[in-house]
Write a structure and sequence with these properties.
Strand content: 15-25%
CATH class of the largest domain: Alpha Beta
Strand order of the largest sheet: 2-1-3-10-4
CATH architecture of the largest domain: 3-Layer(aba) Sandwich
CATH superfamily of the largest domain: Periplasmic binding protein-like II
Shape: elongated
Number of domains: 3
Distance between the termini: 48 Å
CATH topology of the largest domain: D-Maltodextrin-Binding Protein, domain 2
Length: about 300
């Protein structure tokens, strides 16, 4: 005999999801156009049906998530529940609903990897739209822990929480880029100690790339002369081309980063730890079907490239 189905309503689930999104009862009630008491009643009914507390009831200033551990565990299933309810309501609509997957990624990976991947994905899955946001790795990890609308991150892990899960896609080694004819490019053996005295243009703080570079100099016993900080890799390459300094960047095997730009390239080997990039999701969460399709697609493309 099959177990009895829980009697929960879409209104109750929507109240819970909106509370998680807004972080407060007042804001959630406003988004749903109901009173705070009405919102509390829906949440209380849902908690009674599920037999667990979903959110913290204490008043006053609160740091971190409003949800309990059980609430955080149930949240992805609640979002999927609403998504499937919408699909059911639109089953006989003239045109199927376009599902959206919000993905946050580092600027480097968006420009050199994900634009092409998303283009191909949209051609294969026209009813799933990928919404990309460009953020630093540190911002991506923080957003995954606070924003339930963010399905996944694609980045190099910065300081991953125990609440996040990482699936590796690929690694990149580091290279020095400098204007053509620069003395660094002519050295027989290029070391970080030799590079330290040059005016460097590096990634900004909060990025995994910046951390890898600084740690590499520390291991070499050298202090880099950092002149400028940028988030955008394209801008860094153009600034090097203009003679404003030299830089250390991770390069893809195909040379897409420096193609068509007048800069010289010298690989640094393993003087700096390779930068590993992959998919970050909330631990214990089963991504919604649309997000799972995109994850599988990106992993397949990465495996094919490595192969």
């Amino acid at each position: 005999m099959e177990p009895a189905l829980l009697s929960v309503s879409t209104d109750q689930i929507a109240a819970f999801v909106e509370l998680a999104r807004q972080g407060s009862l007042r804001k959630a009630a406003g988004e749903l156009f109901i009173s705070e008491q009405g919102l509390r009643c829906r949440l209380l009914a849902l908690e009674q049906r599920l037999g667990t507390a979903l959110y913290l009831k204490q008043r006053g200033i609160r740091r971190g998530s409003l949800l309990t551990a059980e609430g955080r565990r149930i949240l992805p299933h609640a979002i999927d529940f609403l998504d499937r309810a919408r699909n059911l309501g639109e089953l006989f609509a003239a045109a199927p609903r376009v599902r959206e997957v919000h993905v946050a990624a580092s600027q480097y990976l968006i420009y050199y990897v994900l634009i092409d991947a998303v283009k191909r994905f949209h051609a294969r899955f026209p009813q799933i739209r990928i919404r990309l946001s460009s953020r630093t790795e540190q911002e991506i990890e923080a957003a995954l822990l606070s924003d339930p609308d963010l399905a996944l991150g694609i980045a190099a892990p910065y300081d991953p929480s125990a609440d996040l899960e990482y699936v590796h896609l690929f690694s990149m080694d580091w290279s020095v880029i400098a204007p053509p004819g620069h003395p660094l490019l002519k050295r027989r053996r290029l070391t970080l100690e030799r590079i330290a005295g040059e005016p460097l243009i590096l990634f900004e703080r909060g990025s995994t790339g910046r951390r890898h570079i600084v740690e590499g100099f520390q291991r070499a016993g050298a202090s880099p002369r950092i002149e400028m900080e940028m988030t955008n890799t394209q801008v860094i390459v153009r600034m090097v081309e203009a003679g404003l300094g030299v830089s250390i960047v991770p390069l893809l095997p195909g040379g897409a980063v420096t193609r068509g730009v007048k800069v010289g390239v010298r690989r640094l080997g393993r003087q700096i730890e390779p930068i590993r990039s992959g998919i970050l999701t909330r631990r214990g969460e089963t991504p919604a079907p649309a997000a799972s399709e995109f994850i599988a697609f990106v992993r397949k493309r990465a495996a094919a490239r490595d192969g």
